[in-house]
Amino acid sequence: MTFKKTNLDVDLGETNLENLFIDSYMQSANEIQLKVYILGLYFSEKNYSYHDIYSISEKLMITPVEVVEAFKYWEDRGLVKIEHSTFDELNRQFSVSYVGAKNLYLASILNIDDESFVKSMPKTKPKPIPRDEKILNIIRDEEIVRFFDELEIMISQPISPNDRLKIAKLISSQNMTHEMIREAYYITYIKKGITDSGAVNYVESIIRNWASESIYTKKDLIDSSNIKRELIKSLGISSNHIKTEALSSFLAMWRGRVESDSLLLNIANYSARKSNSPSISRLENLLNDISRNYPLTVDGFNSYINNAKIYKPKQQAKPAHMFNKEFQTPNQDETEFLLERAKIMARRKNEQ
């Protein structure tokens, strides 16, 4: 009698798929990208090293190109690192190291400098955010956590840990309120329809532009929109002929230097009357000209106008008339011209 133990050819183990991955990355990935990530994670935890692109594509019933593109997608997001020194797309051989969502999050928030971990990070990783207790306190705050949850509901997609850190840093450095952060997200995701990986950079640029224009509340934003509209109207130009960035830069530079918005609009109107083709650059040249000798106040502007040299265009000489219009009789020059012409006409008649 013999006894044997039958081993079932079934893997009853577990693969550690992080909750942070599910919350922050899964929704924005497509089906193929998710399949490739999970299967690769399974292989990495089993320490399988003999799988190539072809075997993965065969197991998932997708093309080898789709396998490569999926791993590149996760590398761009910092969750895996393709060892480019071993990458051979032609022979379908390459090595992948899994960083993981949790490690990526901890490295960013705690500014970890462990050499072995840094080597596993992608070359295209975002610049490390300096460790700042104020930023850490912001992102740990329960109110901030709820605020990000509300933002995720509004934009219908998760906000990654790196993006949360960027926004927390802006809240700290630019003194922006939750109301304005929410407005920037609304403009980016809802009004502009920007939802890709560059959306948070667009949000960041909006907030920095607002800070440069001293816009910190909804009222400031409404006032800024009104002054832009009135400025374009005062210049008498179409809004289609001026870039929003140029107008924002102009106001950021000059609005705080001119005594009031009404004075700025008056100067813009004066600039438009003095030019055949009014523009922001001509208005800026006028402001520079005024500020060289006068303060940018009502009195300073009035002094500039009163002391400005007025150049009248030279009147063009009127064409000489054949007859004196005043007396309707020819002068001496005109008489000689007519006599000479009469002789010529008579000579031609005799020759005929």
- Percent range of helical residues: 55-70%
User: How much of the residues is beta strand, in percent?
Assistant: under 5%
* Name given to the CATH architecture of the largest domain: Orthogonal Bundle
* DSSP summary, beta strand count: 2
Main sheet strand line-up: 1-2
In terms of quaternary structure, the protein is single chain
CATH superfamily of the largest domain: Winged helix-like DNA-binding domain superfamily/Winged helix DNA-binding domain
- Main β-sheet description: 2 strands, antiparallel
Predict the CATH topology of the largest domain: Arc Repressor Mutant, subunit A
Provide a compact summary of the structure.
It is built from 17 helices and two strands. It is mainly α and 352 residues long.
Helices and strands in order, then pairings?
Elements: H1 19-24, H2 31-46, H3 53-60, H4 64-76, E1 80-88, E2 93-98, H5 101-110, H6 115-120, H7 133-140, H8 142-155, H9 161-174, H10 178-191, H11 199-212, H12 218-235, H13 244-254, H14 261-273, H15 280-293, H16 298-307, H17 332-351
Antiparallel strand pairs: 1-2
Helix pairs in contact: 2-4, 3-4, 7-9, 8-10, 9-11, 10-11, 12-14, 14-15
